[in-house]
Design a protein that fits this description.
The complex is a heterotrimer of chains A (227), B (246) and C (221). Helix content of chain B is 37%, strand content 24%. Chain B is α/β, with parallel strands linked by helices and 246 residues long. In chain B, a hairpin with a 2-residue loop joins strand 9 and strand 10. Chain C is elongated, with a radius of gyration of 21 Å. The chains are: A mainly alpha (227), B alpha/beta (246), C mainly alpha (221).
């Protein structure tokens, strides 16, 4: 066999790929499901927490800041392992899918809170004064005037962060979530061939490359407004 | 006949289909101060920037004291040591003190030791009246002071020709005078100067020759008394009327 | 409640696990010392190349950067560690981690530094060139100092991510903090060692995270 044939046989073996394709499809479904849930709930939770800080209820703000700091400082894998191994012994039994979902949602929420909060504080204080002086309540000002502007500023870093965290769904492999990577490494062990891993890498790139390119475009589009 | 300090022959430049410079030919004699006036879009800034090849001309030749500047194998960095440029936006290096702003090229291009470079820098700053500000950073200086540091930065290399691209246009009115004062001193010391500016009164008082440019060509040129009091070309006339408000 | 403390905050077990974790910490720090400078260097090359005037340099660089920002670091790591041996390239866990992280970090630092380069106005280049400085000198003494200063918060933020990323090395059996903690966990059937590891990470990273938040104007926290 020539060098090239050896290479394709190792990394692009048709027979192996076809055999494990169903498993990998299942993995894609899990990965996508997780990603979408994490993005929706993570950003939602983070935004709510940032908004809560506006009310300046000191004990509440303090707890939110501590939460955001801790969940940004700790590596997600550490959090995942603590939750996965610790919770059952504390009487809480969750599937690995659920553990991964909760942890990554909390991590994205922590980052989102800080990003949206930075956006809120970036909005010129004159906006508050103008809105309140026309009789709008604090909540109305927040919803109709401040939040939209804060969000516009926050979108590029939010998309960057969301992409980074949804890539972490691959960490689910470590606790047995049947995502793409898990299916691929299992298939690799059984088949003694690296093709499943190659396909997994390619699939991840197919999923995330468009998102990365889109976020690059978004950043350029929104950097206009900052100036 | 003495060699001109700066000689430009047939300089042309277009941006796409837009002709910005149309066959410009000009000579600046040693120690002469030449003013270039004209409406915006006339190409005067582009022309200035072609003189030290910050913009590349499409065709034409430039000679600095008889030495060609536009040929392919010219060492541009070496050539640029002999032409100084002052910009409308000052372009001082914000992360360096005034002294370091002036001494950077002396150290890296001329190879001066730090001590010697600092000495030359401080004396250059002294000449523009900022000897006591050599440790200050650009953010700590007024616009006029920053522009004077920029002039010192260009002058420290002892260039043969100094180019000024609207040096006072970005300054508050009360600070313009300080910069013009420095330019007056430079003229008195005999350095060749090519100035693009809207400071008509200064041109009237200090320039040896005034050039009016419009649409990429030189429309009229002559001594300031002639251009300002009795311009021959109608476009020159209408520009001057518009600008001076008479 | 006491079950909770027993499971997560068992001091006895933490004390027993400490020596192993400490050795793991040393490995983590070694990893950081290797990976961060390499990533910064790779990023600088990528940033300069992304701004090149030659398409033949610019396009492959942008493709490289986008590719390595798309692939999850863990996937890349496992590919380098368990996939490459199939091609005859067998690497130690440390080498595999360093290579995978170098590729990943160069892409991320590259994007940050590219934004930094673009944030320095063109007038600076013009001023420097007009005094006779060549391209290298202009970049070294005028452009880069300003570019890096402008994106320091983002660089710090990404460096924090890199330090956290080292925990992935545990998956390929490199004996850094998390791996050591996980080993201790499997021996004791108790999660406290991992909680201890979490405290160690917090001690190192919490101050840095606070620092990034204080950089007010920067939105990308």
């Amino acid at each position: 066999m020539s060098q090239w044939e050896r290479f394709t046989d190792t990394f692009f073996n048709r027979a192996v790929i076809i055999k494990y394709l169903p498993d990998i499809y299942h993995g894609i479904w899990i990965t996508l499901e997780l990603s979408i849930l994490i993005v929706i709930f993570g950003i939602l939770l983070g935004t709510c927490l940032a908004v809560l800080r506006v009310y300046k209820i000191l004990p509440l703000s303090f707890c939110i800041i501590v939460f955001a700091d801790v969940f940004r400082a700790l590596p997600p894998l550490v959090l995942i392992l603590i939750a996965f191994f610790g919770l059952p012994s504390a009487g809480v039994y969750l599937s690995s899918f659920f553990v991964l979902f909760i942890i990554l949602t909390l991590v994205l929420a922590a980052f989102s809170e800080e990003i949206v909060w930075a956006g809120l504080t970036s909005v010129d204080s004159g906006q508050w004064k103008a809105a309140r002086s026309t009789g709008l309540s604090l909540n109305q000002t927040l919803i109709w005037i401040i939040l939209p502007q804060a969000f516009r500023l926050a979108i590029p870093p939010l998309t960057n962060r969301a992409i980074a965290i949804t890539k972490m769904t691959a960490l689910g492999t470590v606790i047995g979530v049947p995502d793409i990577l898990n299916q691929a490494t299992t298939a690799q062990s059984f088949s003694g061939n690296a093709s499943p891993l190659m396909i997994a890498a390619i699939i991840y790139v197919i999923i995330f490359l468009p998102l990365v390119i889109a976020s690059r475009w978004l950043e350029e589009k929104f950097s206009w407004r900052k100036a | 006949m003495a060699i001109a300090a700066l000689e430009v022959r047939g300089l042309s430049k277009s941006f796409g289909s837009n002709i910005v410079l149309d066959n410009i030919t000009l000579e600046v004699a040693k120690s002469e101060m030449v003013f270039i006036l004209g409406p915006s879009g006339s190409g005067k800034s582009t022309f200035l920037r072609c003189c030290n090849r910050l913009e590349e001309p499409d065709s034409g030749e430039i000679f600095l004291n008889g030495e060609p500047l536009t040929e392919k194998n010219v060492n541009l960095n070496k050539a640029r040591e002999k032409i100084g440029m002052v910009f409308q936006a000052f372009n001082l290096y914000p992360h360096l003190s005034a002294e370091k702003n002036v001494s950077l090229a002396l150290r890296k291009v001329r190879g001066f030791s730090t001590e010697k470079a600092n000495d030359v820098a401080r004396s250059a700053l002294d000449k523009v009246g900022l000897a006591d500000k050599y440790r200050s950073y650009p953010s700590e200086l007024s616009g006029g002071q920053q522009q004077r540091v920029a002039i010192a930065r260009a002058m420290a290399l002892e260039p043969q020709v100094m180019l000024f691209d609207e040096p006072t246009s970005a300054l508050d009115p009360e600070l313009v005078g300080d910069v013009l004062e420095v330019m007056r001193d430079m003229k008195a010391s005999g350095i060749t100067m090519l100035v693009v500016s809207h400071e008509m009164n200064f041109a009237r008082e200090a320039a040896d020759r005034v050039i009016f440019m419009d649409n990429g060509s030189i429309i009229e040129e002559g001594p300031p008394e002639k251009i300002f009091t009795a311009p021959t070309n109608s476009r020159t006339k209408s520009f001057l009327t518009r600008v001076s408000g008479n | 409640m006491s079950g909770f403390i027993e499971q997560f905050f068992n001091i006895q077990i933490m004390v027993a696990a400490w020596p192993t974790l400490f050795r793991g910490l040393a490995v983590t720090l070694m990893l950081c010392l290797a990976v961060i400078p390499m990533g910064l260097f790779g990023g600088l090359v990528a940033a300069l190349a992304s701004n090149s005037n030659y398409k033949i340099i610019r396009w492959p660089t942008i493709a490289f950067v986008d590719f390595f920002r798309s692939i999850p670091p863990l996937v890349l790591l496992i590919f380098v560690y368990s996939g490459l041996p199939f091609a005859g390239l067998r690497l130690s866990p440390f080498s595999a981690v360093v290579i995978a992280f170098f590729l990943n970090n160069s892409a991320y630092y590259g994007e940050i530094l590219r934004a930094g380069l673009n944030s320095v106005g063109y007038g600076q280049t013009e001023a420097a060139r007009s005094t006779g400085l060549n391209i290298v000198q202009t970049h070294l003494y005028v452009i880069l100092p300003q570019a890096i200063r402008n994106v320091l918060p983002d660089l710090l933020s990404n460096t924090i991510e890199v330090i956290k990323l080292t925990s992935l090395a545990s998956v390929v059996s490199l004996a850094e903090i998390l791996y050591s903690a996980d080993m201790a966990r499997s021996i004791t059937y108790n999660a406290s060692p991992i909680v201890l590891a979490a405290f160690i990470y917090l001690m190192i990273l919490w101050p840095l995270v606070r620092l990034v938040s204080q950089f007010g104007k920067n939105l990308d926290v």
